[in-house]
């Protein structure tokens, strides 16, 4: 299994996520945690910040369309694993988000920028989990 090295695309994505996080904090005083944004939208009660959450989610979904309109090409997504592995991964991420009290954008981007000890520990834990998952998938299971 080959790993794609895309430094410019990664830098651009990081700059966009960082800018969005700073603007959300500066304008609305809110932390940009994608999982928290989505869970707030899926809640049965409509809160005061529902419009902000919906706008952020629509913006995240509209970005590939904007790329298509600007360049004539949409993003290329290649997933070298089966649907079962994707569903299992999603379930495991959901469990981790629940136990960790947030996701990579909330802890990894915003929490670390605020020097939150809890976020620093959470980031170390999910990075260790990612390293271990990649090692097991590629070297123990032979990449599936």
Description:
The chain has 144 residues and is mainly α. The chain has one domain (7-140). Helix content is 73%, strand content 0%. It contains six helices and no strands. The chain has helices at 7-28, 34-42, 50-71, 83-100, 104-113, 117-140. Helix 2 (34-42) packs across helix 3. The longest helix has 24 residues, at 117-140. The chain is globular. The mean pLDDT is 86.
Report, as a whole number of angstroms, the end-to-end distance.
9 Å
The coarse overall form would be globular
Percent of residues in helices comes to over 70%
Helix/strand/pairing class, anyone?
A: mainly alpha
Discrete helix count? 6
**Average pLDDT for all residues:** 86
Spans with pLDDT under 50 lasting ≥5 residues? none
Number of strands: 0
Q: From N to C, what is the helix and strand string?
A: HHHHHH
Largest sheet: none
Strand composition percent: under 5%
Return the domain count: 1
Radius of gyration: 17 Å
């Amino acid at each position: 299994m080959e790993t794609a090295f895309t430094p410019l695309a990664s830098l651009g994505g990081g700059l966009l996520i960082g800018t969005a996080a700073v603007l959300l904090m500066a304008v609305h005083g809110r932390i940009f945690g994608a999982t928290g944004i989505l869970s707030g939208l899926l809640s049965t009660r409509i809160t005061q910040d529902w419009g902000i959450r919906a706008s952020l989610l629509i913006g995240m979904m509209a970005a590939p369309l904007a790329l298509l309109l600007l360049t004539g090409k949409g993003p290329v997504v290649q997933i070298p694993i089966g649907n079962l592995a994707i569903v299992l991964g999603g379930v495991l991420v959901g469990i981790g988000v629940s136990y960790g009290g947030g996701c990579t954008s909330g802890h990894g981007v915003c929490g670390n920028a605020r020097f939150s000890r809890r976020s620093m520990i959470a980031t170390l834990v999910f990075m260790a989990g990612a390293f271990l998952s990649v090692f097991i998938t590629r070297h123990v299971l032979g990449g599936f």
